[in-house]
Amino acid sequence: MGIQISPSILSADFAHLADEAAAVPTADWLHVDVMDGHFVPNLTLGLPIVESLLKATSTPLDCHLMIEDPDRWAPAYAEAGAGSVTVHAKAASAPVRTLREIRRQGARAGLALNPAEPVEPYADLVGEMDMLLLMTVEPGFGGQRFLDLVLPKIRRAREILDSREASVWLQVDGGVSDETIERVAEAGADVFVAGSAVYGAQDPASAVESLREQARRASNPTT
Ligand SMILES: O=C(CO)[C@@H](O)[C@H](O)COP(=O)(O)O
């Protein structure tokens, strides 16, 4: 699939979400941060807004659930039509069942790990997921500084996925920008969430293309 860019609407203008989606026509995904004020100390949006967004854009939605009890709620996002639904390993009490249910409802299933959570305990779950999301900030807010300490884990995750020949995308989320994307791509990530670097730019569409180009060059330095 190659490099993919998923602009996070957390940094967009929530009063004009349809326009904000239209502002990034070449994005591969729109990253939708669902936060419940419990799993993370911030409250954003839920299923009704996702349903409205699905009607307003043809860009597939990459829903990142930062909520308690994702086992209960995740399948509904998949059923509504999200292209990808990601749950946090720490929040899910039955991650295998939930990932299977997301797939059964027709979406790609993602598992997310916070910066301090190791990847090794989840190595045997790679067959159950379509995407592994490694947070490169503590979840909850946009505009935070990228945590370099996650880079070795990104490399480790890439090794695990490659050694198992798993066609699982490796997504990174938090602090991805022109300054950081090259080293994240070199470490082996292939799906990049970027909020402030896209929606804080004068021209969000160009920002998407600039990030994509830098990641492409860094992941394939001979081209
Ligand atoms: O999930 C989150 C934050 O919890 C992210 O999706 C942020 O929205 C990314 O924003 P930037 O760090 O790129 O500004």
Automatic annotation (TrEMBL):
InterPro entries: Aldolase_TIM, Ribul_P_3_epim, Ribul_P_3_epim-like, RibuloseP-bd_barrel. Its cofactor is Fe(2+); Mn(2+); Zn(2+); Co(2+). Pathway: Carbohydrate degradation. It holds the Pfam family Ribul_P_3_epim. GO terms for biological process: pentose catabolic process; pentose-phosphate shunt. CDD domains: RPE. GO terms for molecular function: D-ribulose-phosphate 3-epimerase activity; metal ion binding. It catalyses: D-ribulose 5-phosphate = D-xylulose 5-phosphate. Its EC number is 5.1.3.1. Belongs to the ribulose-phosphate 3-epimerase family. HAMAP family: RPE. This is Ribulose-phosphate 3-epimerase. It comes from Nocardiopsis alba (strain ATCC BAA-2165 / BE74). The lineage of its organism: Bacteria, Bacillati, Actinomycetota, Actinomycetes, Streptosporangiales. The gene is rpe.
